[in-house]
Amino acid sequence: MSDERLPARIEPRQVPRIWGRRWLDPLYPATEELSEPVGEVWLTGRDCRLLEGRFAGRTLGEAWREMPAEWRGTRLAGEREFPILTKFLFPELSLSIQVHPGDSYAAKYETAAGGRGKTEMWYVVAAEPHAEVMVGLEAGVDEASFRQAIGAGTLKRALRRLPTSEGETIYLPAGTVHSIGPGQVLCEVQEYSDLTYRIFDYNRTDASGKPRELHVAKALDVIRFGDSTAGKTRPVMRNRGPVEVSYLAACRHFAAERWRFAEPFDLIPAKEHFDLLIFIAGEAEVVAGESRRRFHRGEVWFVPAGLAGCRLEPAADTTLLRVYLPDLASLKRNLDRDGMTREEMAGFLFE
Question: Whole-model pTM above 0.70?
């Protein structure tokens, strides 16, 4: 291909967290016991490096700034920074009870941290029988009772608990109070932001023995009290030839689909946006032009927009997540033409 527009692997980066694990099964089973607990594996961090292709050896942030506009996609040509952060989460302990700000608040008060809020989703890669998350507030919890729970040390009772099972998706708009319990592995898809306001952290201390910083005042500024769209989505499945496509979640910040397949098929990327392919299970080869490369679970691949085509040839039943930045109006039109009802769309599409 004359413009060298090929799918490219991105090197994941392990991020130590106080609540993380020292082993990374089932996605990285060959990993030896780690010297410190790893809580996150960043797949599309701007400092993650591309491993092959035209930008091999460059960080994703560097490559994005140098990338031809047609590789990014017609809708994303003006994006100055790479817009989607994806990661795997490996909690051995519960995460802090926390909340993320929205875009308007971040733009006003968090310019030094990038000025972007954080709406996110979780896809449950694996879960033990008693795994759960806390998402949103119990019915009747308002700001006054929430403040009271903070003071009384009963904050966990104010949050809605959701058991988790493999294959489920949970959507969390900015302003949703939440936490993640142990015994599960999640794939997180989010706006590119690392802004987190901790409200309660189980009295844990940092490496120097000091209590970890809390951000209660800012959290109270951004929490959404009352009705919320946060919670488990209702995915809709459609067969696309040999591929079972499940629409997991879509909003203006990202869209995620699960693809399951056991036979080869051709992938024709859209011209409007690039795709990220996050491999959850299985084994296959990615074929584009004269390039033929094997993927493994736990990897993410960047697929440039407008690629003439590539072929996925599985050697076993394979599951991947396709992630992209959608035009919601266009997505709804396409789903409508496909015969999907408004009620079905409401289960996973959020405006």
Answer: yes
